[in-house]
Specification:
The protein is built from 23 helices and 31 strands. It has 730 residues and is of the alpha/beta class. InterPro entries: Restrct_endonuc-II-like.
Length: 730
């Protein structure tokens, strides 16, 4: 049954007296869980500071206030350190005084915030009623539009009718740019009209006579320009991609129809609406709470713009619509472009961004051949292997498929110390945890997909301690009771000390680790500890409130990078000496300047490690010469990408290309990554880039631009050089 509250349609369900929600950098689940619980009072648990989520919490409160005027919203600040166990536990103490029956959702925030909120909820109900209420505790699974409760039950939640793309923009601090509506009149005419547009587009791409279909003359002429050049060709490709998404549900079962399809959407930051910098996205499709963002490029021989296009769609889409946005790139190219030549072909770039060694889910690339096949499926001409369903269901996540995990043979009879950890988006956190503890055995939990198995192999190579073993245990990361039993069985199979690290995996895995340790401790085990590895601050946070430094990790990070070279399709890293770089024949002033800056930094960091990335593909290897020439610097607990290029000026291509560079560095290093861009351009261009980075790169330290003027100061001034080192290691 559905009901309407203040013009917002929500699912009928059991309402809670109060709801506490952790707020992260994806605030959408907060709105949806409030609609599901329908509480009288909401507590938004957030952090402050440069990495804080206070702004997200305030924007969520503003939207909730408009939807539910009678709802009371409290902002609960847990401090600037999202991993400070003692401070967060103290800040959550007021929740323990709420009447029994209050609920909590621990989807957002750090694992420390989630575990401590779950602990507060459990302890409060045990103290008041003598019984835990796992049915009132859970998290929102964005991949399946479901709330998973800690008692093992799940509940599908409908997206409110008042929820739109504009809602998502506002939650992330953006507004629609003034101008015409982004809704295409052609697509508003429905899926049947969209399929007729697909018929025209397929005929143009295959060189056939356009069919006689009831399409307006204006739309017919626009699609006729699909293989041309200029603005008309780009607009035609946008319309075709939008029509493809609109018409797809006519031929595919279980694939939902998009709630919104917008073309040429522009968003401006709410903090500076008059800046004139609009983030334009070619095609946006919203399916419930999911957003698919597609960049359309229609050029002959477009290899030179692939990197900039990928950087643009990846960073802009996720900045405006959140990290859960599924980006894609549709590109029209000629046969020479598809064959590769001196640059990677699109499928090779996709390998680079989606390969097992990367931590970031990169954009999917749709080539001209792919587009022809997709259009053929929509209009009923099935050619070869179907591609439409895998694209929409798997790549864009429009159909949730439960993972089938075979029963794992759990290791038993191990002598401690043992570390139980989970593979996360960045394997470096797992390496850091094992590096600090030096356990005898490491038990690594992870999904059974090939990507995680490869990462477990990398982990084994990076640990490399004599006598230590790494055991990989495949798990499903959604059912908390089963996860708690699995971790409990692993603990029971160890003789001696066990540390459970809750840093990686889903929040359910983190909470399951806490519950398993709590149950075993209550049963008499006194050699168990729970921790969180904060790779950002270089420390390990114990849940008893103590903290210890991780120590330098140069060698371990270096070993992890080198381990990538053992796979057939990956990015490998060749060690280099900045002092020995020969730039005598280099024609680019920016690259010469980069080499001088690197030599200066190398003199100040004698123990640092330097690497040159190489894209390793089946049968051949090549340098990143199709990107701004770059290197990686590993020092302490930081991984820094350094790049130099002439186009890092005030231009769309320069900005997008630099965004792609930062995407790659962030994919490798996550929170510990920095990007230093060196350019021979002047200061005004650098100021423009820095301002745009602050808007688009949602990390505490966006890429830094070093101009010719600033670089010369670094090369001659010890104070300036050490200030740069401080920024790199901060």
């Amino acid at each position: 049954m559905r009901c309407t509250l203040n013009a917002v349609c929500v699912e009928e369900g059991n309402s809670a007296v109060a709801l506490a929600v952790t707020v992260g950098t994806n605030p959408v689940p907060v709105l949806l869980t409030v609609c599901q619980h329908r509480p009288h009072t909401v507590w938004l648990v957030h952090t402050t500071g440069p990495r804080g989520t206070a702004d997200y919490a305030r924007r969520v409160a503003a939207v909730l206030g408009g939807w539910f005027p009678a709802l009371t919203v409290h902002l609960l600040d847990v401090g600037a350190d999202a991993a400070d166990v003692t401070a967060i536990r103290a800040a959550l103490r007021p929740l323990a005084g709420l009447p029994a029956g209050w609920a909590c959702d621990y989807t957002g925030g750090t694992a420390v915030m989630s575990v401590l909120l779950a602990q507060t909820h459990r302890d409060a109900h045990l103290a008041v009623t003598g019984a835990d209420r796992p049915d009132l505790r859970g998290y929102w699974d964005e991949s399946g539009d479901r709330v998973h409760h800690d008692d093992g039950t799940t509940r599908r939640c409908a997206v409110p009718e008042g929820f739109t793309l504009d809602t998502i923009r506002r939650l992330h601090g953006y507004l629609s740019a003034p101008g015409p509506t982004p809704c295409s009149p052609a697509l508003e005419r429905g899926p049947c009209y969209a399929r007729d547009l697909c018929r025209l587009a397929h005929a143009v791409l295959t060189g056939q006579q356009p069919p006689e279909v009831p399409v307006d003359q204006r739309d017919r002429e626009l699609i006729g320009a699909l293989l041309g050049s200029g603005d008309a060709a780009g607009a035609a490709l946008e319309l075709v991609v939008g029509a493809l998404l609109t018409a797809a549900p006519l031929v595919l079962s279980r694939i939902p129809a998009p709630d919104e399809v917008h073309l040429n959407t522009k968003a401006i930051t709410a903090a500076a609406p008059s800046s004139g910098d609009a983030n334009e996205l070619d095609v946006l499709a919203r399916y419930g709470q999911r957003v698919v963002a597609i960049s359309c490029k229609n050029r002959r021989n477009p290899q030179g713009i692939l990197a900039s296009a990928l950087g643009e769609i990846n960073q802009k889409a996720r900045a405006v619509y959140g990290g859960a946005t599924r980006p894609a790139l549709t590109i029209i190219m000629d046969k020479a472009g598809e064959s590769g030549g001196p640059h990677p072909a699109p499928d090779e770039l996709s390998t680079l961004l989606l390969g097992p060694g990367m931590t970031l889910r990169g954009p999917h690339i749709i080539t001209e051949a792919d587009l022809r096949d997709l259009l053929a499926e929509v209009i009923g001409l099935r050619v070869g292997q179907p591609r439409l369903r895998p694209l929409l269901a798997q790549r864009f996540g429009l159909v949730s498929v439960a993972a089938v995990v075979p029963p794992a043979e759990l290791p038993t009879g191990l002598d401690g110390p043992v570390l139980i950890t989970t593979l996360s988006g960045n394997v470096l956190a797992t390496v850091a945890s094992a590096h600090r503890q030096r356990p005898r055995h490491v038990i690594v939990l992870g999904t059974p997909e090939f990507r995680d198995r490869v990462r477990a192999t990398d982990l084994d190579a990076a640990l490399g301690a004599p006598g230590a073993t790494t055991r990989f245990v495949p798990i499903a990361m959604t059912a908390l009771p089963a996860l708690t039993r699995t971790i409990g069985a692993l603990i029971a199979g160890v003789r001696g000390p066990v540390v459970v690290d809750v840093t990686g995996g889903t929040k359910t895995v983190s909470v399951a680790g806490y519950l398993a340790v709590a149950a075993a401790s209550e049963a008499g085990r006194g050699d168990l500890r729970l921790c969180y590895t904060d790779i950002w601050s270089g420390s390990r946070r114990w849940f008893d409130g103590t903290t210890e430094p991780l120590g330098p990790m140069d060698d371990r990070i270096g070993q992890l990078l080198v381990a990538h070279a053992s796979r057939p399709e990956a990015v490998s890293f060749r060690a280099v000496d900045p002092a020995a770089l020969d730039v005598s024949g280099e024609k680019s002033p920016s690259r010469v300047l980069l080499a001088r800056v690197m030599a200066r930094l190398a003199a100040l960091l004698p123990t640092a490690r330097w690497y040159r990335p190489t894209l390793t593909l089946p049968g051949r290897a090549q340098d990143w010469n199709w990107l701004p020439p770059g290197y990686l610097l590993v020092t302490g607990n930081r991984l820094i990408g350094l790049y130099g290029h002439e186009r890092l000026g005030k231009s769309a291509d320069g900005l997008s290309e630099a965004l792609f560079v930062d995407t790659l560095v962030a994919a490798l290093g996550g929170d510990i990554a920095r990007t230093l861009l060196v350019t021979d351009r002047d200061s005004p261009d650098a100021a423009y880039l820095s301002a745009r980075y602050s808007q688009l790169v949602r990390r505490p330290f966006p890429p830094r631009v070093l101009t010719r003027e600033h670089a010369e100061i670094v090369l001659t001034s010890a104070d300036a050089a050490h200030e740069l080192l401080d920024w790199l290691s901060r």
